[in-house]
Amino acid sequence: MQPSTHRQERGPFCCVVHEVGLRDGLQMEKQIVPTGQKIAWAEGLMAAGLDILQLGSFVHPDKVPQMADTDLLFNHFKKPGRKPERVILSGLVLNEKGLERGEACGVEMYCLGVSASDTHSRKNTGMSSAEATERIVSTAQTALAAGKRVQVSVQSAFGCGFEGPVPQDRVLGIIGRYLDAGLRNISLADTAGHGHPVQVRRMLEAVFKLDAALECSCHFHNTYGLGLANCYAAMEAGVGTFESSLAGLGGCPFTRVAAGNVCTEDFVHFLQRAGQRQDIDLAGLIALAKEFAAFFDREMPGLVHKSGSPAKTG
Amino acid sequence: MQPSTHRQERGPFCCVVHEVGLRDGLQMEKQIVPTGQKIAWAEGLMAAGLDILQLGSFVHPDKVPQMADTDLLFNHFKKPGRKPERVILSGLVLNEKGLERGEACGVEMYCLGVSASDTHSRKNTGMSSAEATERIVSTAQTALAAGKRVQVSVQSAFGCGFEGPVPQDRVLGIIGRYLDAGLRNISLADTAGHGHPVQVRRMLEAVFKLDAALECSCHFHNTYGLGLANCYAAMEAGVGTFESSLAGLGGCPFTRVAAGNVCTEDFVHFLQRAGQRQDIDLAGLIALAKEFAAFFDREMPGLVHKSGSPAKTG
Q: What's the rounded Cα separation, in Å, for the pair B69 and B75?
């Protein structure tokens, strides 16, 4: 049994935050961020109390040069004393080759995914969704057998920038395949930002009918302003882990219309207003978001770092 | 019995959109918008199929010069053939004097409100919340007796920029007073944008316990990114009418921290994705939002007019 990241460990209604800005955010940026800067940001994100930190993606550096130093980053943080014990470092892997790289540099949690849209899947991997699923299941099982945390995702789970609507049954079919293969830590990603809360709730009710005890994570983009509404709908349906990007960085370079991820500090602000996660240093996150804006020299999508953090209202 | 604006008339789960940008939006702008421009925008908003349009506020022109032409606007649209029959024109009134002005120029629906925060109430009206409530109830009853639609609101219902948390019981107390006075069309306004969806749902469940059949409207601001999440929570609780501003204009000049209203076209996009309000011309709203951005020569908060409207996914 792999170690759990489930919110049950942290008490009921207590959400886990998986920061993906250093991967999903930076891979969208034209500018290559120096490794030392990434390390400093990762330290800031860990110090602020986030739970899981995605350091990068084991993709070919020619394809996504922004991720070329992923192995370096993991090697840096695997040295003793360089990260708090409670923080889990995750990395995205696309195939067996990526898994080998990850095993060599100390990845603690592997994230692997398949697009529910054939068009998106072919653009991303050259394979149909069904072919990619079998490949990912096989890679994920290898990682699981090595005793690592493994999260398998369904990308474009709520709509596709190329195909438009994605049938719910196609998403449930992939999840069913994951569950059959013993992969019980599932993430649903709204890669293009098409999801809306009514749909999210309907989808997740169907997902939890497949297995009421599965660990479910959600990854939303705020393309049409519905990112936090979708998080709330998912929370109401029982989702315990959310993937977000500081300052709202992010997107997907292989999908047509995409905007930033749900913004981490906006999501944490919401959690804290709702009485959760008072252990996270929101002021620290806001300071980091301002650093991001200064570094990239543009206005970032997040709102809380611009509006200022108000007194907590519970 | 006053004419109803309730969604029941439009079928279940079908939200009514009350556009308040020409009032709540423009009163925040330094620039005075010419009356002819306001008329053109109002025509565009009505043509796009919005339900209720707030043309302005009957406040003293020295206090809010942006609203000085409110009477002119109502007089313009009361001439036959100048607006679609189905559109309701609303105006904000603060007192009996405003009501007299409104009666002279053909207001169809009066909006009156009281802040649940004493500090906000005193800054806005010079009166405590309790004193202001009695004055508003009296004015609203006069309007009701004249056979007009009347909506009474509780401002700062989810928190105050000055006082911070606002006890739920204070909000329920004001609503109870409205109901006792025969005022059954209630709006809850999150003036400072402090509301979060868990709180919104809890509040509205308590409100509908006071009277399951009251007409309830919500007015959210997107200060911390939770505007649409709050709309969704309110819809789930049974709210049928939402106040929003095209392009996300708006705020409140008498509260400390405020950002734009929920953005109309982002809200309509959400409704249409959820299968509602296909009768509203989203492309028309997007074109108008771009006009707003060009007129004010700055980026507007709304996202859909920047991301582009995707194919509908239902």
A: 10
How far apart CA B111 and CA B18 sit, in angstroms, is 11
Chain B interface mutation, best of A196, A236, A245, A256, highest count of B Cβ atoms under 10 Å: A196
Residues B202-234, buried b or exposed e (16+ Cβ, 10 A)?
ebbeebeeeeeebbbbbbbbbbbbbbbbbbbbb
Cα–Cα separations (whole angstroms), residue A156 to A78, A194, A226, A244, A260: 32, 9, 15, 16, 15
pLDDT at A311: 53
- Tell me what ipTM this predicted complex has: 0.92
Assess B30–A contact: CB distance below 8 Å, yes or no. no
What are the structural domains of chain B?
13-307 (3.20.20.70)
Q: Where are the alpha helices (DSSP H) in A79-187?
A: 96-105, 118-125, 129-145, 168-180
What's the rounded Cα separation, in Å, for the pair A137 and A182?
Answer: 9
* Closest approach of B274 to chain A, Cα-based (Å): 6
Positions of A marked catalytic = 252
Tokens matching residue A67: 């991720």
pLDDT per position as a tens digit, B18-51:
999 999 999 888 889 999 999 999 999 999 999 9
Tell me the whole-structure pTM to 2 decimals.
0.93
Contacts A–B by Cβ distance under 8 A? 124
Q: Residues B80-90: pLDDT tens digits?
A: 999 999 999 99
Is A304 close to B225, i.e. CB distance below 8 A? yes
Q: Give the DSSP letter of residue B99.
A: H
Mean pLDDT, rounded, of chain B: 91
Q: How confident is the model over B216-223, as a mean pLDDT?
A: 96
**Mean per-residue pLDDT for B269-287?**
96
B282-291 residue pLDDT tens: 999 999 999 9
